[in-house]
Design a protein that fits this description.
The complex is a heterodimer. Chain A is globular. Chain A is mainly α. Chain A has helices at about 1-30, 40-55, 60-90, 95-115, 140-160, 165-175, 175-180, 185-210, 220-235, 240-260, 265-280; strands spanning about 120, 130, 135-140, 215. Chain B is built from 22 helices and 10 strands. Chain B has 3 domains: about 1-230, no CATH class; about 230-305, no CATH class; about 325-570, 3-Layer(aba) Sandwich (Rossmann fold). The chains are: A mainly alpha, B alpha/beta.
Chain lengths: ~290, ~575
């Protein structure tokens, strides 16, 4: 039981970052109906921007800001340069899907070109762990969870209590209806991609800080778990993504205490398949085909 | 140099077989499968453990047989197909495109983890080695002679795969598959089981991947988990994409261009700036840019999938006998969230009649149609059609049983020609079974010819004959609607439900549509029309049903209904809303 408690503690840390990443992924999907396979690179760029900013300024706050900004810029760029034009040209969804993979390939290898393939270390001072109830956390763990919580609360307010959030949800529900209702869908969708980029870039920075290292494939590896969480939660549903991310984060960390760490990913995906077998559209009924009639 | 070229050509043949397998899954059936490289790996591993015999310890693995290569390759192909049957059975059922992609991705990751970590299976992370050169224990060729022989053998395999796939592509099975890719719901409405078709395609594609894997193992002599990161599947996608998705020749062209010419030529990008990553990174960036450029400027690929022209025509067949009470609906109910959209709805439709269904917006007309045709499941009630209770059946089963529908927006398969759209509507009678083009090919050809002639005849009646080789996506809205009616005539259902056929259609075309409906009735089809246009209904309908608040409140000739107080309150009093 002692170990399970520890596992849940670590799981909450992983789950917090995962939730940010999965919510960003799911928001993009909600407005564009295209899963963005270059999502991982938003995290990677956030992490590297944070790394460079830390070296310059020695301030984690500046680093976090840099990570969020670069993530937002890239999210904006991907939609403006690729997703929107292809959607307008009525390119097949699966083809655009492959296109985002191509973007991922390009972005990932630019990092490889500039920074090299070796993993870079975040030279942060080591910290002691302290006990909180059954959990064992470092100060940095606690900060990362607090940051995730704050970002999620901000997102909640933004989605439910602002005009932008209402428009976003209207578009997610029915893009055509939103358009004929006078919502400026184009601007809201652009804004959503930018917002998701900001969240993902920040998540990448938090991830790199908790891991202590960063590599060009950091985000791509994390994308797999992100998609597992977003899909298990029901694509396009932020609350579902949050619930699934915590569930998957905890399951992964608990399993890592009992089995080899290479099985972590396996646990995440086993959980996903299980959820989909029981509820094909995810925990919170996610994206379904448009009803005819 | 000669050796190098031979090796490249061999590689090209092997990759072509793999890409053709993936093309069946992605290009034809439209499924984004990330597990594909796993099937290649299973093929490679199975070919090895059935032909390398026993390696010295500490290597450990299953089987360790010493079979001749053709047998080993057969086992490899079958194993990959079997694995795909398992994965596909789970992933294709009820899962939409995105979910399918992600589930297959997780499947391949699990497979890779298990194979790398569980040593007794295929020797874990170290992989297998010592694959004997196929046939060389009897041939005893020199190394040069053998590499040429092996190239010829791979080319032969590719040729066989090519011929088989070409045949399949032209067959009703291939057409049905492409129909599913273009328009899943319409395919189901015309009696095609989407799940069965997709699963069959998935297994065939994976089996070809397994064959490719066996050949790969034979050419490399060794195989281990580092040889197959999931990203490798991307290269195959790029090749298909650049070459021409769906087109067999285009795919082979793409493989030779992308996987052979491009990969080999970029291998020589020098290590600039003293950075050893440059050549790797630059190649991947170029690959990514190639995809994006192709998407922007030539989405259909260098060698696009062509629409197939049709031939010939003859006379239509006589009408069926009219009989009473074909459709009987009792107590139908459906609740969405807190709202009961259809509430205890009952009515019947007699054979050989034309019945109109009217009601204000939100009366539950379209939902009732969905419930009757299987596109939604009723919470309560009985739908009896031709003497059988059909509530809860899948839409394609109901369609095959003779009850078909149209949608408010015309559904066509835009990438298929008008003629192909018609051929897909012909009753299947097991003709798109995968084995038909290979066995019983003569009977198939005869049936196909008869259908083609009938389709031509119907197209002439509906004034679409000039457009028969045109992709259906190029038709105008009204022509699409006419094509839909022609497809119905082709399919010969016993009952047809038309959901707002006049929506957004100009008056001139309206007259043509009325003629078309009269033609359907003459063919013996019973018709139910959901419509707002009362003048149109008055012209074509025998009986009109009035729906309000989820239930049928009145039925009878429209002239009689005009005097009915309840009906006037519910519907006629309110100005009918036109789109």
């Amino acid at each position: 039981m002692e170990r399970v408690g520890l596992g849940i503690g670590f799981g909450l840390v992983t789950g917090g970052v995962l939730a940010l990443s999965a919510i960003a992924f799911t928001l993009q999907y909600a407005v564009s109906r295209i899963p963005n396979l270059a999502h991982g690179e938003l995290l990677t760029y956030g992490a590297y921007a944070g790394y460079v900013a830390t070296r310059w300024s020695h301030s984690l706050a500046v680093a976090a800001l840099a990570a969020a900004l670069i993530g937002g810029a890239i999210g904006w760029g991907i939609n403006a340069a690729m997703i929107e034009p292809f959607l307008r040209a009525r390119v097949r969804t699966t083809a655009i899907f492959i296109g985002t993979l191509a973007v991922s390939l390009v972005l990932q290898n630019i990092i490889l070109l500039v920074f090299g393939g070796a993993s870079l270390a975040y030279a942060l001072p080591a910290e002691d762990s302290n006990r909180v109830g059954p959990f064992l956390w470092t100060l940095r763990d606690e900060q990362s969870m607090a940051a995730a919580l704050v970002v999620m609360l901000l997102l909640y307010v933004l989605l439910h209590h602002t005009k932008f959030g209402k428009a976003l949800r209207a578009i997610a529900d029915n893009r055509d209806l939103a358009r004929v209702s006078g919502i400026q869908t184009h601007r809201i969708i652009q804004g959503t991609w930018c917002l998701a980029g900001v969240v993902a870039g920040f998540a990448g920075f938090v991830l790199a800080v908790t891991l202590g290292t960063l590599t060009p494939s950091l985000g791509f590896t994390f994308l797999l778990v992100t998609m597992a969480a977003a899909v298990a939660g029901g694509l396009g549903r932020p609350q579902g993504a949050l619930a699934a991310a915590l569930l998957i984060g905890i399951a992964m960390e608990v399993s890592a205490l009992y089995a080899d760490a290479s099985y972590k990913l396996l646990v995440a995906f086993a959980l996903l398949v299980l959820v989909l077998l029981v509820r094909p559209s995810g925990l919170v009924a996610g994206d379904r085909g448009g009803a005819v009639g | 140099m000669r050796e190098y070229l031979i090796a490249l050509a061999t590689e090209g043949c092997i990759f072509s077989i793999m890409a053709l397998g993936l093309n069946v899954i992605w290009g034809w059936a439209g499924d984004l499968d990330f597990a594909f490289y796993g099937y290649i790996a299973i093929g490679a591993y199975m070919a090895m453990v059935t032909s390398i015999g026993r390696l010295p310890a500490p290597a450990q693995y299953v089987l360790g047989w010493h079979l001749p290569f053709p047998l080993a390759a057969l086992i490899a192909t079958a194993s990959a197909g079997l694995l795909a049957l398992g994965v596909g059975a789970i992933a294709l059922r009820r899962l939409r495109a995105v979910y399918f992609a992600i589930v297959t991705l997780s499947a391949v990751l699990m497979l890779q983890t298990v194979i790398s970590d569980y040593t007794p299976l295929f020797n874990g992370f170290d992989g297998l080695y010592g694959m004997p050169q196929p046939f060389n224990d009897t041939l005893h060729l020199s190394p040069q002679g053998y590499s040429l022989f092996f190239l010829a053998f791979c080319a032969l395999c590719l040729a066989i795969v090519y011929v088989l796939l070409e045949r399949l592509s032209e067959s009703p099975f291939g057409r049905a598959l492409r129909a599913v890719r273009e328009q899943e719901r319409a395919a189901a409405a015309f009696g095609r089981s989407v799940y069965a078709l997709k699963l069959t395609a998935y297994v065939i594609g994976a089996a070809l991947g397994g064959l490719g894997g066996a050949l790969l193992a034979a050419s490399q002599g060794a195989f281990n988990p580092t040889a197959w990161p999931p990203a490798e599947t991307l290269d195959l996608y790029v090749a298909i994409f650049i070459g021409g998705m769906g087109n067999i020749r285009g795919v082979i062209l793409g493989v030779f261009l992308v996987l052979v010419v491009f990969q080999e030529s970029t291998r020589f990008i020098p290590a600039l700036w003293g950075n050893p990553n440059v050549s790797v990174a630059a190649r991947e960036i170029l690959l990514g840019l190639m995809i994006l450029v192709a998407m922007r400027y030539r989405i259909q690929g260098l060698w696009p999938e062509r629409a197939r022209p049709g031939r010939g025509r003859t006379a239509a067949r006589p009408a069926a006998d009219p009989r009473p009470a074909l459709l009987d609906v009792r107590g139908l109910s459906k609740r969405f969230g807190g709202v009961e959209v259809v509430r205890d709805c009952s009515f019947d439709v007699r054979e050989g009649t034309v019945v109109g269904l009217i009601g204000p917006n939100g009366a539950g007309k379209s939902t009732a149609v969905d419930l009757i045709t299987g596109f939604a499941t009723p919470d309560a009630g009985v739908v009896r059609f031709a003497g059988r209770e059909i509530q809860g059946w899948a839409p394609d089963r109901i369609a095959r049983f003779g009850l078909m529908r149209t949608f408010q927006l015309p559904h066509e398969w835009p990438g298929l020609t008008v003629m192909e759209n018609m051929m897909l509507a012909a009753p299947a009678r097991g003709r798109d079974a995968i084995w038909r083009p290979f066995f019983a090919a003569g009977a198939l050809r005869r049936a196909e010819r008869a259908d083609r002639e009938r389709a031509g005849d119907l197209l002439e009646k509906f004034q679409l004959l000039d457009l028969r080789d045109e992709p259906a996506g190029h038709l105008s809205g009204g022509e699409k609607r006419l094509l839909e009616f022609a497809r119905i005539a082709m399919a010969q259902p016993r009952l047809m439900i038309l959901d707002e056929p006049m929506g957004g259609v100009n008056p001139v075309l309206g007259a043509r549509l009325a003629d078309a409906i009269a033609h359907l009735v003459a063919l013996g089809v019973t018709v139910v029309i959901v419509e707002h246009d009362l003048a149109f209904l008055e012209r074509v309908c025998d009986i009109v049903l009035v729906m309000a608040l989820g239930t049928v409140i009145a039925a009878g000739p429209l002239a009689a209904l005009r005097a009915d107080r309840v009906v006037i309150d519910a519907y006629l009093g309110e100005a009918p809303v036109h789109a």
